[in-house]
Design goal:
By secondary structure, the protein is an all-alpha fold. Helices cover 73% and strands 0% of the residues. The chain has helices at 4-22, 27-30, 33-40, 46-51, 56-73, 76-88, 92-107, 112-132, 140-159, 167-180, 186-212, 221-234, 239-264, 272-285, 299-303, 320-338, 341-353, 356-370, 376-393, 398-409, 420-426, 433-462.
Length: 465
């Protein structure tokens, strides 16, 4: 039995989860519910509730969003993608590999949805060229299918490699740091998750091109010319691109060497959020250096490019709703924890779950298949408190179950509604639901094995538990 306050929190949680799952209202709007109901029902005062919406982890993700805006504004993402494809070659298999690598790398730093939206038109243009200028034999339907799936899945897999790569990562890190008052270092996350992401991407290449949808398309002169033409249209690196690249690289290096810098002196103390905001603010301070027109922005925005690399008008493209969603998730999780509901649930589940490797395996399996029909960010917000309390109840480190659950939530590959990238490429018309389910099931099984093994054997070593 629970007391009256706990019952109220549980009712609000049920309402929010129902609206999130059914998408009856926009997810950021649902995330505002705690600001209204918690004070009205005396669960917590408005100041306490509102503090969740300004948690440091939210500003970390905001900094990542702003870096992504600059990369998109100055077409750096397009140049990176086209150069990787040019390096890998233009045979059917190598084009797929090039897109997997390019998409996965970009998705490490930009949200997986934004990455898919960026890569989608590039892939469609390559498909169009290959269709119009066929040379030799080959299965072009399989090529089109593999290329579309590779963009969606590589966006998902690349996103798990960094904390800022996808919203579920940020949601879990925010919850964990608030609950246990322990920071998860940016570089520690990468040490564990970059190898997982790379293995998933190479497994994706092998599954799509060698097992499920072989295309047998040899090196294509037309595709090679198209890549070269696209790069020539971009021209040489502009001053703006160079400056964005310098700021982006410096931010990434500070994330990587933050601990070394902090240990070598006592004047300043860096953390991941401060570094992200330094990079973001630098983009507004640093002058762009030219007036080159950008396809992604209007003429009025072009006129402003003589100022900084970014102007405030550019931020209208930022996913502000995601930041509200994090705040609402943290507020809900905090109320559930304070009411004792999460502890009760963890203790109850522990009676049936046992512990150890099999528990980790079951959490990973359940998480990846639930995510096929539920928003991954909503899933992590809902289940992060549950799996952490479950880990506490069975005397496991909560990071082991929590990170496995979070990574699995981003790897759903079977259904269009599993992740936004899946939905985007499914809308292209090149993919049938049976084909996505077949490829997705294989990648789900690969993801379950890799995530379970890495979290059980390597996470305790790499993250200094």
């Amino acid at each position: 039995m629970v007391d009256d306050k706990a019952s109220l929190v549980l009712a609000i949680a049920g309402l929010m989860i129902t609206w999130w799952v059914t998408e009856a209202l926009p997810m950021p709007v649902v995330a505002l519910i705690p600001l209204i109901l918690f004070p009205l029902l005396h669960i917590s005062d408005i100041k306490t509730t509102a503090s969740n919406y300004s948690d440091p982890i939210i500003f970390l993700f905001m900094g990542g969003f702003i870096l992504g805006l600059a990369i998109e504004k100055w077409n750096l993402h397009r140049r990176i993608a086209l150069n990787i494809v040019r390096v890998t070659g233009t045979s059917g298999n190598r084009i797929v590999l090039g897109f997997i690598l390019a998409t996965g790398f970009i998705s490490m730093w930009i949200s997986n949805t934004a990455t898919t939206m960026m890569m989608f038109p590039i892939a469609l243009s390559v498909i169009h060229v290959m269709k119009d200028k066929k040379e030799g034999s080959g299965n072009y339907k399989n090529f089109n299918l593999a290329l579309m799936l590779s963009i969606a899945y590589a966006s998902n897999f690349g996103g798990i490699a960094t904390i800022i790569g996808t919203p579920p990562n940020v949601a879990f890190v925010g919850f964990y740091e608030k609950k246990y008052n322990t920071n998860i270092d940016f570089i520690d996350w990468m040490l564990l998750c970059v190898p997982i992401a790379l293995l998933l991407m190479f497994a994706l290449y092998f599954v799509l091109t060698r097992i499920l949808f072989p295309n047998h398309i040899k090196s294509n002169v037309a595709a090679s010319q198209h890549i070269t033409e696209e790069l020539s249209l971009l021209g040489k690196f502009s001053a703006s691109e160079k400056r964005v690249m310098i700021i982006f690289s410096a931010t990434a290096l500070l994330w990587i060497f933050k601990d070394l810098i902090n240990k070598s002196q006592t004047i300043i103390k860096l953390d991941d959020t401060i570094i992200a905001l330094i990079g973001a603010v630098s983009l507004f301070i640093c002058p762009s250096g030219n007036l080159k027109h950008q396809d992604n922005f209007s003429e009025s925005e072009e006129l402003e490019s003589s100022g900084g690399l970014l102007n405030w008008s550019d931020t209208k493209r930022m996913a502000w709703g995601i930041l509200l969603l994090f705040g609402g998730g943290l507020a809900l999780a905090g109320a559930l924890e304070k009411a004792g509901l999460i502890q009760h649930l963890g203790v109850w589940l522990s009676k049936f779950a046992g512990g150890g490797f099999m528990l980790l395996f079951m959490v990973t399996v359940i998480s990846i298949f639930i995510s096929e029909v539920m928003s991954n960010i909503a899933q992590v917000i809902v289940f992060a408190p549950v799996v952490c309390s479950l880990a506490d109840a069975v005397k496991m480190n909560p990071l082991i179950l929590g990170i496995a659950m979070t990574l699995a939530a981003s790897c759903a590959s079977m259904m269009p509604m599993g992740t936004p990238p899946n939905a985007i490429v499914f809308a292209s018309g090149n993919i049938k639901i049976k084909q996505m389910m077949k490829a997705g099931l294989v990648m789900n099984l690969v993801s379950i094995v890799l995530i379970t093994l890495f979290c059980w054997f390597l996470l305790p070593l790499l993250m200094k538990l």
